[in-house]
Amino acid sequence: MVIALIGATGLVGEVMMRVLEERKFPVKDFIPCASARSVGREVFFRDKAYKVRSVEDGLAARPDVALFSAGSATSKKYAEAFANAGCVVIDNSSAWRADPTVPLVVPEVNPHTVTKDTRIIANPNCSTIQMVVPLAPIHRAYGIRRLVISTYQSVTGTGVKAVQQLQDERAGKEGEKAYPHPIDLNCFPHGGDFQDNGYTAEEMKLVNETRKILEAEDIRITATVVRIPVMGGHSEAVNLELEKDFSLEAVRHLMQQTPGVVVQDDPANNTYPMPRFVEGRDEVFVGRIRRDPSVPNGLDLWIVADNLRKGAAGNAVQIAEIAREVRSRK
Ligand code: A2P
């Protein structure tokens, strides 16, 4: 397949190249694209140097699949043109996620929403992806009534500039700022812009995207997104209220049986998932599985994943694999 990568010079774009290599995605021709300031720069894919092109050049090459990870504005501007040219667009931005005609896909959860005619597929927000992988089987078995989510998100989730800010602060250097506050030795309850309802954009993504992916508009959800001085890997404390009663053994067994989930839950030996140890992994790690006795059918989980892998590039490439498989069907 001819693959275009829009945002090839970004953090997620770089990881997308590595995941395409690792998963041996059949790439006949590779077209890396970025903004005008990067045109002509080289990126390396499968040990070969490729010159970065403009998005217009990428479109003119008529790729089979375009992986977009260059922000919402770029996706809004170009995704439809690629789709109209017969390309399958897999978009990592929030531009198309709320569109009812665009599937929002986590391959372990709702691969059935991609059909032969699908042209634009939205990749969910990083914190939503890692959360719904373990939550989907719980919802199917017990019904989720309400979720209270608190996230602990790393700086790679914000992009290159945020990583640089944390590195500059640690080195005692002045530099460009991605955040309104120092991030080192700090944390702030602020991810994305504040909305009229007092929540941030990242918090509302968790609410709306979870409902769309689980096809459950009536789940009550509240979220607080916190940025922490961790380089990579997002963590989430998730409190669930379920419709049906459960046993912890059954939930633990269900998690162990869920594709894409690794259970790390042995508190007596200090074993629980941590962001430092999930780097480069495509699975979602679940621990601290325990009953919340303060409400009927209450459950607590601690969920950690590599936000650039499962949370972005890994999920996007998995979607590309589904799109390829669906298109090859008679
Ligand atoms: P560039 O490096 O030329 O700015 P990150 O989120 O890690 O900062 O990466 C963002 C990615 O999106 C980069 O590859 C960046 O390219 C790309 N990008 C940003 N704005 C545009 C644009 N207007 N057109 C095409 N690519 C863009």
Structure write-up:
The chain is of the alpha/beta class and about 325 residues long. It folds into two domains: about 1-125 and about 310-330, Rossmann fold (3-Layer(aba) Sandwich), CATH 3.40.50; about 125-305, Dihydrodipicolinate Reductase, domain 2. It has eight helices and 13 strands. The chain has helices at about 10-20, 55-60, 70-85, 125-140, 160-170, 200-215, 250-255, 310-330; strands at about 1-5, 30-35, 40-45, 50, 65-70, 90, 120, 145-155, 220-225, 235-240, 260-265, 285-290, 300-305. Helix 1 packs across helix 8, helix 4 packs parallel to helix 6 and helix 4 (about 125-140) packs across helix 8. The longest helix has 20 residues, at about 310-330. The two termini are about 20 Å apart. The site of adenosine-2'-5'-diphosphate has 16 residues, from helix 1.
